[in-house]
Protein 1
Amino acid sequence: MKVRESMDDLLNELKKDPNIVNWHTVPGRSATSVPFPGAMDARLRKALISRGVDSLYSHQADAFETVMRGKDVVLVTPTASGKTLCYNLPVLQTILTDPACRALYFFPTKALAQDQKNEMEELINEIGAPLKSYTYDGDTSGTIRQTIRRAGQIVMTNPDMLHSSILPHHTKWVSLFENLKFVVIDELHVYRGVFGSHVANVIRRLERICNYYGSHPQFICTSATISNPREHAEALTGRRMTLIDRNGAPSVRKHFLFYNPPVVNKQLNVREDEMLAVKNIAARFLKNDIQTIVFARSKLKVELLVSHLQEINSGREERAKICAYRGGYLPLERRRIERGLRNGEIMGVVSTNALELGVDIGQLRVCIMTGYPGNMASVWQQAGRAGRRSGDAMIIMVASSNPLDQYMAGHPDYFFSRKPEEVRINPDNLMILMDHIKCSAYELPFPKGETFGGLPADDLCQFLADEDVLHYQTGKWYWMNDSFPANEISLRSAVQDSFAIVDVTDQGHTKVIGEMDRFGAMTMLYEDAIYIHQGVQYHVDQLDLEQRKAYIRRVNVNYYTDSDLAVQMDVLEKDEEAPLTGLDADKCYGDVSVRALPTVFKKIRFETLENIGWGHIHLPEMEMHTNAAWITFSEKWTDRFGKDVFQGALVGLSHLLRHAAPLYVMCDQSDLSVVPKIKSPHNEKPSVFIYDKYPGGIGLSKKLYESMPELLEKVREMAESCGCESGCPSCIGFVNEGKAAKQALLHILGDYSSCR
Amino acid sequence: MSLKQKLQLYKQQLHQAQKIERQEYDEEVTENEIAEGLEIRQAARDLHAEIFPFHDEYVLVHTERIGLRTLIGHYTPEELFTVVEDWQRGSSSHPLSAYGLKAEELLFFDTETTGLAAGAGEMIFLIGLARVTGEGVELKQYFLPGPGHEAAFYHAFLNDSRSLKNLVTFNGKAFDWPRVKTRYQFVRNQVPRLPAFGHFDLLHASRRLWKERLDSVKLQTVEKEILSTGRTEDVPGKMAPFLYFQFLKHPQASHVAGIIEHNREDVLSLIALYIHLSKKVLGRIDCDPAEQYEIARWYQQIGDKERAFHLFQALADLKDNYGYLSKARLAEIYKREGHYTHALTLMQSAISGKAEPDDSLYIEAAKIMEHQFKKYEEAIEYTQHAIDYLQEKTGDKDERAGQKTRAYLKRLNRLDQKLLKEMER
């Protein structure tokens, strides 16, 4: 019989581990409670009391009173702080007073809406009043839909459903829109970047329709910790917001550990692969039946980790105790995993940030992060997954060798005192705006002179009229086309169409096992790629661009594949320009054209990460126009250091910028790209471009243009604090002429720094 | 960058994103509303339509009277009177029944729309409406001259039609009527209330009778294959949106004349089809076994056992599949009434009369043996036949068959138990 170690044993072991570079304990906090507000309906009080709630946390009471005063509200709430009551209480209070009132909730995922509906239903049962709340999503059956439209007082849905089903059919929802009192938007911080910009436009459409039916709903939003919750909520909803961010909820004591894997190659300053470290640490907990969640930053890493971790267990049943959870899985599979985690059948889960959201999986004991998740909001959301009601929670962040991780590992004070990032959206992105003008015109004709989100819509409507999509008559633009615009527009992916992933292993029984956006498909599902799904390897036989299908076949090989992109940059228009004092360089901002072509892929062996082969990728070039911030250097630097060295320095700078940028603006790594050009075609000068990876831009590079001096300062610190001599993954990466390049870069940035 | 500049810059990309095929034009689109007014007036003349103004909007209405003896396929509108009269003596609850109605109360109704989706962005631009009176078929077609004239359009239509309780449509329940309701929401403050709606959906009826023999049960197919009317120069209905968009850009009658004619023929076909279907259901013209069986089933489903019984009985002597099926249905009716011996005899006759009786009949027989006559051995035998049939027919792959097999095995076990108990006694 194997001897099990307890959580305490494991903690003590870890305390002795030399690779734990920081041990930070976040003390627990007791609750700040206040009595029920005087105005609260007696039925509501009774219901709460019988559920064992006899007072409110201070922020819940704040929210109740502020909403009841008629304000639009944004709440900042950490995980497990009882945010649901913040919006459910004022909504229920209002509906109890006037049953004709309606509320529309939307959540970023179907799963969240389901969870919330169950919770709402329990509360309603306790109240004993005939209140009706429903979820409305793609799975809702036709007959129930009619009931919901007619009589649903609280409708819980997601922005996609609002976009493609509810708004385009608003005439079927007259009683909802005529009586809409509240719009609840949960997990506001998720609506950022492209997705957020789309959602902001969906809300503009919602407002137009409410206006048509004569309602003016209040907005109640909740968000994880970000630095600009009010600004973001206002950008998203177009309303003035009242911020509530005083948290009165208690929390347990949390141990926050940094684990920095040992250096395995002194010359190159290469550390042990963080995946290996994560695997070993997670295995220690899992072997002792301690429920553990592991976060990884990419789908690929999730799959790799799962297949490694499943090796701990040999039996088939045992292997099923450890599973992966990420986008691209079908809903049923996800539900099964969520249930398994709650009831303890599943011991370990490896997830992308998909499980950051409030999906109900109960609370686990241990949370392991594979590298810094990219933003502080994610750090705290992920950390919030650990911590049962009793007993300390354990959070371990395993640093990878990327510069930001190493910087964080070396500067824990900076980490723990860090302000959360800003969230940016750009609802006025022309591509996105145009999509939603179409949808909105489909829903209601645009009278001449009408504005959309504050922008005059006439020019846009005229453009669409010229395209034969709208028709102008008697002062209005009418939809006049036989397509259904919302079907062609997806809120979620950068490129509008998604690819089905078809498993053809068994020719008789091919099945769709997931889907992926176009960009993802072209970088992960090119022919001969090895695609990993639920820990199983597949070979991509064919990528059909026309039919948008990838045909894959189960294989068992000891390598994975990684693709390279060739990128061309052209400046279309420079909107802003300013010198970077002391650097002999200018920062610029404007419109650029990016042409990207997947060229080759490498085959990389699992254990050793060595390159064991390569192949061509035969796919067409993708072109897009977008916004970029760029630094243009004086040619004197090229002359001074020589072309090769300076090129190395630029590549190194790009490497660092890519990693440091998310410190200033909240985005996924895939939202931004950094491209160095020793001779940029637009002015023949050395330049480094940072661009938004979405047509028309989503506001990220604008923010980075504004913060460029701070960003460069951070880059310098990162390069300087790295101990290596000639470049390593933790600073400038491996570049030609590494030693000279690093010195050159430090020199350039150092000069700059001393001048500021 | 200004919005205008941006539009210019992104034009190509936006254009690609629209992904909507365009038609090229040489002429300039005229914005001049006076000229447009003149053009519309000319179009109205060419379409033999009157212009009815309503506030600052207007609608084009084409009115026509068609003689009662005009042939539509094999029928004349006059026969509607006979059919409606026959219904007075027929079933009052049948979905096609005109019991209690006069022929002129039936409103034959069809629309053309700007798209097939059913959201807030599609419009109805043409409504065709016909009723048969002593003087002839009174046909009215309401044509929407542009999207800004919907109040005039619905005002005219709703004023003329008043009651919409007896609409006769082809797929009106799922297609036309929801769209009328949607559009009504946009003009509800300016036009008469939308009256209660009831109707005869001939798609439903046609599907019942002819879904086996027609590839697709569309009005045009039914016309061609069943009514033998056929059209000479028809504009396909799916061209309607495109032609209408053309008209909006260049209001000339030639763009929409074809689609208006299409709608006219649709409405007239509805009259012939209603007559034809009623005659079949009422037994006034010959039915083949397939039709008669479906008509009998229809009666059975609406609870008219007597009519169903007679029709099934007439089919029961046939040696083909319809004979077999009818026996099974008759047995079902007997069983419901408590005539178990009759039911069983019919089942046995059906089973022995057919090469391959299916599992459901065996199981029905097994049920009667088990529950009514307590003959477990026979019940076991029938159940075993049902299982064998499934095994042979479907193999293991079919999931539904698998479910059934499991249920049958359960039944078999239970019967074994019962039999055992009985033998112990």
Protein 2
Amino acid sequence: MAKRLLIVLALFLLAMMFWEVAANYTERTALTPIATHYVAQGPDEVGAPNLVTAVVVTYRGLDTLGEVTVLFLSAVAVGLLLTMGGLDQKAEPPTPASEIVETAVQYLFPIVLLFGAYIFVNGHLSPGGGFQGGAVIASATLLLFLALPRSKLRHALLIITESLSGFGYVLVGVLGLVLAGGFLDNRVLPLGDYGRLFSAGAIPVIYTFIGLKVGAELSAVLERFKGEAS
Amino acid sequence: MIELPLSTITLGTGFGLLLIGLWGMLVRKNIIRMVIGFSLIDTGIHMIMVSLGYIRGGTAPIIDAAVDRATALTAVVDPVPSALVLTAIVIGLGITAVMLAYAVQIHTHKKTLSIDDCTDSKW
Amino acid sequence: MVEALGNPLNLIIVALGVGFLLPLIERSSPALSRGLFNLTIIYQAVLPLLWLLWLVNGAAAQQIQTAGIAPPFSINLRLGLEEAFFVAGVNLASLLGAWYLGGLLRGRAAAMSVFLILSMGVDGMIMTRDLFNLFIFIEITAIATYGLLSLERNAATLTAGFKYIIATSLASTFFLLGVMLFYYLTGTLNIDGMREQIAQVQGPLGMVAMSLLVAGVVIELKPYPANGWGLDVYESAPTGIAAMVSVGVSAGALFALYKILPLIEPFLPALVVVAGTTFLASNIIGLKQNKVRRLLGYSSIAQVSLLALAMVLLTQLHREDAMPLVIGGLFLNHLLAKAGLFWLSGALQRNAVEDWRGLRANPLLLAILGLLLAALAGLPPFPGFWAKWELVMQLSAGGMVSWVALILVGSLLEAVYLFRWFGRAMSPGVQLTPAPAVAQLLPIVLAVLGLLAAGHYAADSLGLDTLWVLLPAYAGIALVSIDGLPTRPKGLITLAIVAYYAYRVVPVLEGLTGLFGLMLLGGGLLMTAAGLYRGDTRRGYYALLTMLLLSFGGLLQADTSLEFFLAWEFLTVSSYLLLCMGRDAAPYTLAYLIFSLAAAFLLLAGFGLAYAETQSIALADLANVKDGAAAVLGLLLLGFLTKAGALGVHVWLPGAYAEADDDFSAMLAAVLGKAAVFGLFLSVISLGLKGGGSDVVMYLLSWIGLLTAFFGALMAIFQEDLKKMLAYSSMGQVGYMVAALATGSHLGWVAAGYLAVNHLLFKGLLFLVAAGIILRVGQREMYKMGGLIHNMPVSFFGMLIAIIALSGVPPLTGFGGKWLMLNALLEKGWYWQTGLAFFASAVAFLYLFRMIHTVFLGQRKRIHKDLRDAPLALLIPQLLLVFVILALSVQPNWLVNPIAAIMASHLPQTLVMHGSLMQSGLGYWDGFLVINVVGAVFMVPLLMLLVLSRFMRVQRVKQFNIVFAAERPESPETTHYAYDFYSFYDRALGFLVLPRATAFWNGVAEWSHSMGTGLRIFYTGNGQTYALYILLYVVTLYFAVGGPS
């Protein structure tokens, strides 16, 4: 009971802190100098209409590489934890889905994959990008597992995709170092015509790598959680 | 009545979610529920992040037909928090996945999901 | 190409590129992936080392930008001297760690990737200059750790891992929130940009922002009590991983703190409290811990908080210039020593401290353990020693005396639990596990070598004549390498080395140091020579003995307090280890070390205070201390008195002197004790005559000295054990010297010097005689001896001379000493003290009589019929000492004149000498008064005993009473007349010698342990509770520093 009281007290005090923030917060009416630079110079410097993408892939590209790394690490960690006899093998066999679902998924699956790819290649133009696209691809896998619990992914393909796209991303970054201004500079390729698919330098390439990598990794994570149960 | 700015509302909601998540994490004994608490905390943080980058009346920072370059400076929200939140979401996802994997393993080894039974080492 | 390979950004690029590829490569060729991993991890370690080298040699700090766009619009990193140092350290540890982990990683490309990325993550934490990017690297490091923790699959590791995730993810959540608020307030994420905009970080939002940012980083540093999750991981993780968490991840967090310090100015005082509390609490709780890995966990947390404490305090003092030595030294020390110990505990697969018994059977492992522990405890020549020295000096100079005290107390506690562990390893026991593989030991050995090299470098950076001041350590190490030789040749080599050293050093010493040079080095040589009687294997004995003797030289030649303290610590370490070699010494070694270290820390505190006032570490400048003279004098005297075994802090002494090897006991009591006397001399000469508070200190000193003399003698008379009796006797004799020094007069100091020389002669002689007796009889209990005069006439003669010299009756040297001392006391007008001195001398007669009577006279035991006298190797030094005593008795002026001349350079000479007779020396003294006091004081105990014996039932028992009564006594020793020889005095005076000091110190120990029990009550093991602590920590920080407006 004392502990419960302490929890209430701690949360109350934390709420007081938050209240201080919320009560003294004023909505901003102008961009910060840095955001101003991004908005004013971004289209010329990076060539991507989607400024969030410009920030994500180029201006703060190192963050994004780190983000990819985090995802890679968690996929590996889940792998390390759940392989080698981790999961309870005596789980009940999953109930198969109805035929309608099974059939629908077979049609939906490629379309969802395609949609994912669309999202990541257009990341510099419209809302979306590598992570979003990758997540959509993984959702296709999830759909597959829900409908066909016995389905298996091709591990070799997953690992190759994961490794090569990760390595490719780093390589493009290094090319920036060699050919352009610095590590992860997207201007290794010409910026092209503003607003076109093939523009914004290496951003679509990077987002493709990220999309593939995220899709493969999240799929692998999903499969590991699904376990060997079949 | 005072009209609350939009971002204050989302900010407050974010803080509320954070506190609810913390409550779940601190009170619920089931590890899975604790992980859910963490997810709520995470979501709360993301809302706070986005709120802090909001510019009054701003729209998405995508400079295309809808927002031309000339007016963009006054028309869009700060792209930085949006970019950061994307990163934060992915990281949160990664941590949640690892937490769940740990939960699975703990259940395999201890046949329980209660955090109170996870006191193998202390002092 | 070369330039491309040297790009600091490669630390991130290569680790990631290889990390991503490894799982793929392993599918086709496991060997290739292994090779690539090795290559990468070596590259990761070499690159920052090269940069460190370039930067030290003047290269400019590297500003690394990304994306081809200048900061603050893009993320930038920095590789300056401090970054390069930390990165190099961490990557070196991960290289050695990977080597150590070999087996665990083999065939697991995924784990290898994670390991690579873990150290990359820490590198990023150190190098990045962007706050959000810092968050990313924190998360990379965290998740990589989560992954590696799962390499060991048992319930404890898994639950600990889960708690770790909960805690660190909460911490980073708060950190992220803080970062976002900072962005909101300053409009930038660049740390340097924020520093420029720091004025914006104010008001209620600024307060919350700062507290969240601080909390996020501080929790990563595992502050007490919100750190149970960290300890659980240290305890249950695979040792290689725990080592990485302890040194790598903590290093990253520490550097993160360093980076944000300018952003959170108002929180600096709170940080100091947090770090100080954690340091002290962890070390107190560590006392209770009996599992090695958790012990290392407590030590890790303590060391990291010490680093944080030092960092913040130096920032507050604006002494950033001291940071390289202090932070660098402490960090490197923690890095290599802690990692090495984690690896060692893993390689030997021993977790419970008890299980380390019997490690002494393997000298290599024992040496590794000892060196690593010594490094961790901040002993020389390791970097932690220099760092702690500099830290104490800087803090003292900044007036932060209470923090100095906290750091020293905490360090002492840490040394206690670390060396208790070593004590176990030195205790006899069975060798349980087979020796570990060489491949696993190599990284640990490299860590030790790295520590030695770093220590050498640190000494260089202080501008010392490094080779010379570290000579004792290096000579010791060199002699270890010939440890395989038979014992006697090693002894001869030691003698040759030390003799040559003394030949070079002693002649250049002048005055007081010259006198003590002769005593310490001459006496040391003689005792070493006497030790040649032993031909059994004595592993490491002569190496350590060389170290000890050369440290005497260092002590005498020291011009600065640093050199003095260094030599002093060498003495402490080497004598402790030599003591450890005593067969039954194990129960007493820890007390010896604790009191020795406490003494050293008192000295350090004293030197610090002196430095604060004079801004100089020259010993000569001690005399320039004015305002703090009494405090400095008090601290120095306390330190030296502890080492000399003054009453109250003498509890370590009897055990140590009695249980050391017999020849080493002679060294300890006769020679090493004089080092403390030298220190006492040094203190009173520099500071004793300042008037004011110093006078009070000196007056107290006189009582301490005489009470020590009295109680030492009193306790000696009740000892059954020959060596223990001599030990207490030594304690009492030192008391006289202390009292004589306290007079602060020329006469008194001459007396002190004279007593010191004399004590060296007769106590050395007595211990050597005792060594011979014990060798022949195989016993230390005196009542089991008797009548040995027939078998050991030379030894008897030696003891007789020594006893007469000790007792202070004419005609031998002792008389002169007593005469000088009593005169000095009287001259000062200290009549009560004079009385006590007389009384103590009278008591001394009792034990002297008992010793010679019980051992050499009376009936000889039948089994001792065929004993021979001691071996020649022992007798020759004895005879030499006898000869010197006799010579000085005939010509006391040979001794008094030089001493008087030495003291005359410090004080106006009051002792005047005419010709060779010293009686004619003193001009004015009230001889009548002296005689009266002497008479009175001899009468008092006499009357007292007469009165007491009247009222007590006195029973006269013949020796064989009980046997003649045809009774079989229950415990046969009680029938021996010599058993409990002075039982009647025991009844009269025994109440005075109840072990009060021992009881007191035991009480202190118990109290500390119960403190530990009380403080660790927070560690319930429940992850949810730990999360609550973290939350409470955050809000407490906020409300303690500012709170809502």
